[in-house]
Amino acid sequence: MKEIIPTILVQDRLEFERRLGIMAGKIPMAQMDIMDGKFVANTSFTDPQIAAKYRVGYELDLMVEDPQPYLEQWKKVPTVKRAFVHAEIKKPLAPLLKKIKSYGWEAGIALNPDTPSPSPLPQGEGDRANARSGEGTLVDCVLFMTVYPGQNAAPFQPKVIPKIKSFHAAYPDILIAVDGGVSQATLPLLLKAGVTRFAVGSAIWSAPDPLQAYKKLLKVVSQYR
């Protein structure tokens, strides 16, 4: 099933709650962009206790140097479904992915535009990855950043599309998500490359009616064959 996932990238509580209020009960999933000001230059406002009050499922994009404390904070939110750790952090990915999966969440890796796709994907102890399907890997989904992360409305990076196509050919059973610059114009290119999950920021939140903008994008991906 293809998904449009509005992103929540804000700097204050008022806007955080405003955006959640618009989407609560009307969308299945929102992405929390969690930034520590170290892995990327900017910080963001997120609060798991506030988020837990809204009827929304969540995925976490952990743009942080040390994901562990953030995972501990968010594990108390019952509607979290998945979390992504960035491949570029200076910590082993496998233990973090195992921790995410121990919560019953999907575990994913996020890749910045210049980061090569990992090969092989991180595996659990005693598991053997299958080069064609990703069997045995700890990774449920790979999130390709199609912008340089850390700010709203960054320009779309078309150079990521060949990387997505190559990864999809190598691991056809691993779900592929993208984040950044997703719009009516870029959706056809991304759908053709094999993407099924689309994290969307400015194309939704800069629209006069964010919920209507969400529905229009969802219609595009739902009708793609």
Topology, element by element:
Layout: E1 3-8, H1 13-23, E2 29-35, H2 48-51, E3 57-63, H3 68-74, E4 80-86, H4 93-102, E5 106-111, E6 141-145, H5 160-170, E7 175-179, H6 187-193, E8 197-200, H7 202-205, H8 210-223
Parallel strand pairs: 1-2, 1-8, 2-3, 3-4, 4-5, 5-6, 6-7, 7-8
Describe this protein with a few key phrases.
alpha/beta, 8 strands, 8-stranded parallel barrel, 8 helices, 225 residues
Strand count, sense and closure of the main sheet? 8 strands, parallel, barrel
How many H/I helical runs?
8
Class by alpha and beta content: alpha/beta
* CA gyration radius, whole angstroms: 16 Å
What is the end-to-end distance?
12 Å
Order of helices and strands: EHEHEHEHEEHEHEHH
Total strands: the figure is 8
Q: How do the strands line up in the largest sheet?
A: 1-2-3-4-5-6-7-8
Strand content: 15-25%
Describe the global form.
globular
Mean pLDDT: 93
Secondary structure: helix percent:
25-40%
Uncertain runs: 126-132
